[in-house]
Amino acid sequence: MSDLIDDPIEGENAPEFSVSELSGAIKRMIEGEFSHVRIKGEIGRVSFPRSGHVYLDLKDDRSVIAAVMWKGVASRIATRPEEGMEVVATGRLTTFPGQSKYQLVVEDLKPAGVGALMAMLEKRKAMLQAEGLFAQERKKPLPYLPEVIGVVTSPSGAVIRDILHRLRDRFPRKVIIWPVAVQGEQCAPQVANAIAGFNNLSPGGALPRPDLLIVARGGGSIEDLWGFNEEIVARAVAASDIPLISAVGHETDTTLIDFVSDKRAPTPTAAAELAVPVRLEIAGWVEEQGARMTRGIGQALSVRDQRLRDLARAIPRADALLQTPRQRLDAAGDALPRALQAGVQTRRVALAQSSGGLRSQSLQRMIEIRRQTLGRHADRLTPVGLTRDIERRKEKVSDLSRRLSDAGARQVQSLRDQLAGLDRMRETLSYQATLERGYAVVRGDGNLVKTAELAGKASEIEIEFADGRLKVQQGAVSAKPVTSSKPATKPKPKKPDSPEQGSLF
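The chain above was modelled as a monomer; its predicted structure follows.
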């Protein structure tokens, strides 16, 4: 560093640096002293720009350190950084002279213990559950007897041997194995690609599409099983159109794939048992059903045979059925000649009676009777007869018209009498008749006045008499009537007003 520092000028105690010189010296010192460090802290702000790099902050309760993870490191890191995650970051410190700041270049990033992994797992589980990936209604039923079973697991472990052995014991099926890594950084992408690859196969192709998938792995720690907790695996299982059984770990191990899969098996062996039924049990059941069917058919035939014999005994013989109709036919054949002769004789007598009425004398007498009847009616059809008939009908119409006019006049007179009576009653009940006896109606300022107090308060008083109305000012009376409700000759009573319209005094 001494070659970067100028010799001190005489009289000055501090050396002189340029900005770049000082920044470079600080950079070399920091990178030399902290070339490889491990930092434990909580992830604060995280950003994922389109460049592929990852920028984040590591913090504790008192300080914050900026960190950067370059694209190559971010692509192979096993744990995706999330805000609030407690991690252990391995890398080197460097400075950024353009902004006078230092930062950690992260080369590896791992969760800080099981607690951090479980917290991240619970957060991811809550997110997927909120999206509906765990919903029971989206789970598909397993086929009863699949033709082809696809297994996603390691081809070298004991898991695949257990599955194949169990399938061979229960019901041999065609099995397609998709080899994958079951732990480590490559586990999650390989398992997701295997599930998607099985779904992309064409049914009936050279490599047939499985009817059922099994994703299996043996037991292990949470770190070993972490690949099956990755979001990419859970979403691949949710997107699978093929029913899927998850068999990851032992019975006590639980991963995210267990919640998204259509069926969870506690062990890989149990997954094989869920995949196919027991062939011997099916054969025994088929044999039992065949025996039951044979017994049922035998019993049904026996019952129907007995029923047929019972019905046969109840049916009469053919000779007995034809005996009565045969006798009736013989009797009818014997009676037919006599009936024909009697019918001919009857029709001969009827013909003789009818022909007697058709003699010439009878016909002439009938014609004469018809001629006399026609003559009597012809007299009525002459002009004189028609005129007489018309006159008779005119007299009848005139009489009816006169009677109708008299009845109408009587009804009109009756209605007039009723109307006159009602008018007399109206005049009797009208307050105008009371005015004729010397009373009057007082109104003050257009309102009814009933008391002296109200009359004193009114600025103008109007008094209605039988022959008209007068307006009275306070202390003076107007000389002429304001209005006249009746003629001068004979007062005519008005229609009775309601009590609100006036007061009599």
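The chain has 14 helices and 15 strands.
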